[in-house]
Amino acid sequence: MNENLDASPDASHDAPSDVHVIGGGLGGLAAAALVARAGRTATVYERRGRLGGRATTDWKDGFGFNQGPHALYLGGEANRILQSIGIRPSGRSPSTKGAFMVNGNVAGLAPGGPTSLLRSPLLGWKDKLELGRIMARLGRLETARLASLTVNEWVDDLTRRPRVRDVLHTLIRLTTYTNAPDELSAEVALMQVQMGLGKGVIYLDGGWAQLVDALAATPGVRRVHGDPVTELPDAPTVIIATGGPQAAEALTGVSVEVGPIAEVSVLDVGLERPPQRNLVLGVDPPMYLSNHGFPDGMVPDGASSVSVSEYLTTEMTPSRDRLQAFLSHAGIAPDAIVTERYLHRMTAVTAIPVAALGGLSGRPTGAVPGHPGVHLVGDWVGPRGHLADAVLASAEDAAAAALRHLDRLPAIR
Ligand SMILES: Cc1cc2nc3c(=O)[nH]c(=O)nc-3n(C[C@H](O)[C@H](O)[C@H](O)COP(=O)(O)OP(=O)(O)OC[C@H]3O[C@@H](n4cnc5c(N)ncnc54)[C@H](O)[C@@H]3O)c2cc1C
Q1: Are 305 and 232 in a shared domain?
Q2: Which of 264, 262, 266, 263 is nearest to 307 (CA)?
Q3: Which residues line the pocket of ligand 1, CB cutoff 6 A?
Q4: For the whole prediction, is pTM greater than 0.90?
Q5: Residue nearest atom 38 of ligand 1, based on CA coordinates
Q6: Predicted confidence (pLDDT) per residue in 50-76, tens digit
Q7: Is residue 214 part of a domain?
Q8: Enclosing domain of residue 302
C-alpha cells in the first residue's frame, strides 16, 4: 500500500546540494526531479512529516482517498512533463455514464461528450440544437483569444438559452474546479473543456501518491522534513514551491497581483459495492459526485468509493450536510457506506487566472524581482496550464532557470 513516501532523512540541512527546493508537494518534487534528471542534485525541504502536499493519498479502513477527487489530464502539461522524465502515470479513464442533477432531481444522461449530452432529457430540442452547434465549434476555438473575457461574458456570448448556459457552466466547473464565472478567464475554461472532451482524463492507480512516490524516488533528489523554512536559504539557487502566493511572499517579501483562491469541500465515501451512477453533475447545486474506486489499489476487493465535492464561492460556508444530501439524492444508500472522510475547506487552486489580468499570461512569472537565482513554482505561476498542469509547467520553467543560473555561476563569481 502506498504511503506517500515519508520524507526521508537521507539529507541533512547541511548537505551540499546544487538546488534548494522549499516545499515537498507535486511542484517542489517535480522541480527537484527535473534538476536531478539534468545531472545536478536538489534537496527538497518539506515542513510536514510526509511529502506530497495536496497530492497525497490517505488510507482509511482499506480505502484510498486523494485530497479530493483528482484527475490527470492526458493532454495536459503534467502528463507531458512526467513522461519526459520517464514517469508514465498508470490509471484508468472514468466511465462517463452518469446524470445531471437539478434541484435534487436526477435527470438521467451520460454527459460524456457531444453526442451523449444531446440525448439529455434536461434539454428541449431547441436547446439540443444550440448546444450541438456550440460543441461542434468548441474544439476549433483558439483559447488565447478569450484571455480577457470572463466565463460569464463568454457563455453569454455563446448562447441566450438558459439551460444551455447551465450545461456549459456545469462542464466548466467540472474541468476547471472553479466556481467563479464572473472572474475566471474564459481562456482557461475553454482550454480545460477542450482537454476534457479531447484526450480526457485518468484516475491514478494507487491515487496521486503514485506521482509523489515516483518523483521523490528520482536519483539525485534528497529530502529533508519536519520544519518549515522561514527564510530564504543562503544558497545560489532556490526554488520556492510552497503552494500559494502568500507562502511565497512570506519568504521573498515580494507581493504580486493574482486572482482569488478556489476552494471546495469534499466528502469521500467508501462503499461496500459499486455505486448506481459513476458521475452525477449538479447543475444546481454546484456539486459533483464521481466514482473513484475503480483504479487499481484504491479499495478492498468488490468494494468501491465515491467522492462528492461542492465548489465554494467566497460567500459560502462549507457544509457536510449538503454533501450528504447530494450523496443520497445521487442514489447512495446509507447501508452501502463503509467509511467516510470529510474535508471541510480545501484549496483547489491558490489563485485562479482571471480575465481582469489577461488570463494565463497575467499570472506572475517564476522570476522574483531583486532575488536572482530564486524561482517560483505553483498553480498560480507562469503562462501554461491550470491545476496540476500549471504546477508542473512552472516546475519545468523553474528547473530550467535554476540550471541556467548554475551554469552561469562561475562567470558571476
Ligand atoms: C480537492 C482538490 C481537487 C483537485 N483536483 C485536481 C484535478 O483533478 N486535477 C489536477 O490537475 N489538479 C487537481 N488539484 C490540484 C492539485 O492537487 C494541486 O495543483 C497540486 O497538488 C499542488 O501542488 P503544489 O506542490 O503546487 O502545492 P502543495 O501541494 O500545496 O504543496 C506545497 C508544499 O509546501 C509545503 N510548505 C509550505 N510552506 C513551507 C515552508 N515554509 N517550508 C517547507 N515546506 C513548506 C507544504 O507543506 C506542502 O507540502 C486538486 C486539488 C484539490 C485540493
Answers
A1: no
A2: 266
A3: 22-28, 45-48, 53-55, 67-71, 177, 228-229, 241-243, 247, 264, 266, 346-348, 378-379, 387-389, 391
A4: yes
A5: 242
A6: 999 999 999 999 999 999 999 999 999
A7: yes
A8: 262-349
